[in-house]
Amino acid sequence: MRHRDCADRRRIGHTVEHESDAPGWTGPQWARYLYSVMVPPVGSGALVQTIRPLSSVQSAPKEPPMPISRTVRSVLWSAALLAAFAAPSRAEWPEKPVTIAVGFGAGGTNDIVARAVAELLAKLLGQPVVVENKPGAGGAVAATALARMPADGYNLVATTSTTVTLDPQLMKLGFTPADFTYVAAIGEFPEAFVALPKHGWKNLSDAMAAAKATGRMNYASNTALDRMISAAIAKKAGVSLVPVPTRSGAEVVTQVMGGHVDLGYSSGAYYPQAKSGDLAVMAVLGDKRVAGLPDVPTLKELGYGVSSVNLVLFIAPKGLPSAVAKKLDDAFAAAGKDPSIVALMENRSLNAVVETGATLDATIKRHIDDFAKLIEASK
After folding, report:
1. How far apart, in whole angstroms, are the C-alpha atoms of residue 100 and residue 186?
2. Average pLDDT by stretches of 10, the chain with 379 residues
3. Which of 327, 324, 326, 334 lies closest to 354 in space, CA to CA?
4. Which of 42, 66, 257, 314 has the smallest set of CB atoms within 10 Å of its CB?
5. Would the CATH topology of 98-189+313-370 be identical to that of 192-284?
């Protein structure tokens, strides 16, 4: 049997001295081996090339190589192709943990929503989803870093939609809206103007009528956005609204509750006091009323012609592969419908918005256009 094996090997132009010398080659190594059998050296004029042993094989031909028939070459060629493609296919995404960087500090609405969604995503995607905080510049620090990361689906950012729809129109940043894939929006912030009930104002129009008596009114301000909206409102009402800067939504509530200002703008910190009756909500800034405050009108309903929609937004670098984008769309859509997320949005007074894919792309574009008009109206 041993003699017959060697004879068989000689028929293809190569002798292995001992059976123990026969290599345990991988598919690609066999492909190279067989390729050398079939392809003659350039310019040699030979029809058949003797196999050149790899370093792992010690060989010494016992006799001149024999030509290989066309049929044998065809069989070997087919075997070479099969061997070349025998390597295992790439595993489907995700193959490792996914990271969500929150563009704001721990404990805020963005952070709370991101962590709740991450728990569900881990179950839906079959990989851990790690949440880390990367605050700074109203979400711009995290967004700038994300724009420079590979578009492989393993790095996302949770931020506010105004980080990409408004801020790049107001200042030069390290990114533009075109630098991202818009993965999902889960929840809309209940931005509003609030005042003390003792004033007796039913809505913002009543407050503006009171301001006309003195010509001006001060209000606690927290963002560049509220200053733009207030300027547009003041222009429409024919009064002067003077912003009093604060460092957070919680400080806005403190200023209003203490009677230090007449009005205050807040993205949601006011909600507990509004539900308890300690604060009166004058108007909400979004395109629709807040679910938990159904009697409070929007700015557009009051005739001011402006609005501000700010979403909890999840983004990825631009150029996300379509298969990865589809998996993320499906996972976020499922997470947004989960009872735990629905309850969270209700408890945080977020409007129950869940958008992905082309629908979200259209929303982002519309918000960019709306803010461009708002900027012009506030001049």
Report:
1. 14
2. 43 40 49 48 42 42 54 53 46 94 88 96 98 91 97 97 94 96 96 97 97 93 87 93 87 94 92 94 93 93 91 98 97 98 92 95 95 84
3. 334
4. 42
5. yes
Q: What is the C-alpha to C-alpha distance for residues 28 and 37, in angstroms, rounded to an integer? A: 15
Task: Please state, in angstroms and as integers, the Cα–Cα distance from residue 137 to each residue in 142, 171, 174, 353, following that order.
Answer: 9, 11, 11, 25
Q: In CATH, which of 3.40.190.150, 3.30.300.180, 3.40.50.620, 3.30.470.30 is domain 98-189+313-370? A: 3.40.190.150
> What is the CATH T-level fold of the domain 192-284, as seen in this structure?
D-Maltodextrin-Binding Protein; domain 2 (3.40.190)
Hey, what amino acid is at 27? G
pTM value is: 0.69
Amino acid found at 306: V
Amino acid at 130: V
134 in Cβ contact with 102 (< 8 Å): yes
Angle CA 105–111–114, to nearest 5: 150
Element (H, E) at 362: helix 357-377
State the Cα–Cα distance between residues 374 and 221, nearest whole angstrom.
17
- Enumerate residues 6+ apart whose C-beta is below 8 A from 182: 313, 315, 360, 361, 364
Of 160, 168, 106, the closest CA to residue 138 belongs to: 160
Buried b (16+ CB within 10 A) or exposed e, 246-282: beebebbbebbbeeebbbbbbbbbbbebbeeeebbbb
Tell me how far apart the alpha carbons of residues 267 and 71 are, in angstroms, rounded to a whole number.
78
Torsion angle in degrees (nearest 10) through CA of 347, 349, 352, 358: -120
Domain positions in the chain: 2-84, 98-189+313-370, 192-284
